[in-house]
Every structure is written in structure tokens, then in C-alpha cells.
Amino acid sequence: MQICQIDCYQDAVKLMEEIGVTTRGIQLMAPKALFMPIRLKQVDSRAANILKQTMLSQGAEAAVSRGTVNLSDTHTDVLILANAAQLQRAVPRLKEQPWGLKAIACELEALLKKQSDFAYRL
After folding, report:
1. Residue 109, Cα to own-chain centre: how many angstroms?
2. Would 13 be classed as within a structural domain?
3. Considering its fold, how many domains does the chain have in total?
4. Is pLDDT of 67 > 60?
5. pTM higher than 0.85 for the full model?
6. Whole-number Å distance between alpha carbons of 37 and 19
7. Domain annotation covers residue 58
8. Cα radius of gyration rounded to whole Å, the chain
């Protein structure tokens, strides 16, 4: 038994190829293997609360300041703890939300596309 270090999409692909996973299987599973902690700065606390709930609904997490839940902090940094697949599922939901979440969703989508484009060049 061994804990595997997966630092990028290419690492996940390589490990799965070594195991003999099909191309389609790699496409489906590699995003789940790529843990992507993302820090956002100075997010409106109302948006941060929605972001946290959205991440939780996808099986992910979002760490926010203590004063976010009761809005005693007007803004907070957010640490999203999710894999690429969870982020992909969260983006459409976030695009429908107010307080700057559509812009955050678009940034997440661009980040995921960049990661995906790199993966398909391999």
C-alpha cells in the first residue's frame, strides 16, 4: 500500500495509465484525483456563505472567517478545498448567484479549462 503524490493532472493520468485504465476512464476519473485548494481574497461575506454551501453540496469545503456566518465581517478570504470534478459541478450553480459569485464562477471555469486544455495536450 502506498500514498500517491498527485501534483498535477499529468500525474493522475500517468498513474492511471500504469494501472491500465481506459482513455474514457481516465477522462472521467482524473479530475477527481486532482485536489485543487484555491484561495480567494476579499470575498463579500454574503457570497462567501453561498460559496461555502455550494461547495458543501458538492462534497467539498470552503473555509471562511469566523465572522462570515453572522455577517459581522463584511468580507473574508475563502479557501476552497475541492477536486476538479467538484469545482466543475459547482460552477453552473455559482453563475446564478449574486454578490460577485458569477465572476468567481467564471474565474474558476477558466482555471478548470486551463487545467483541462493542458490535460488534453498530453
Report:
1. 9
2. no
3. 1
4. yes
5. no
6. 26
7. yes
8. 16
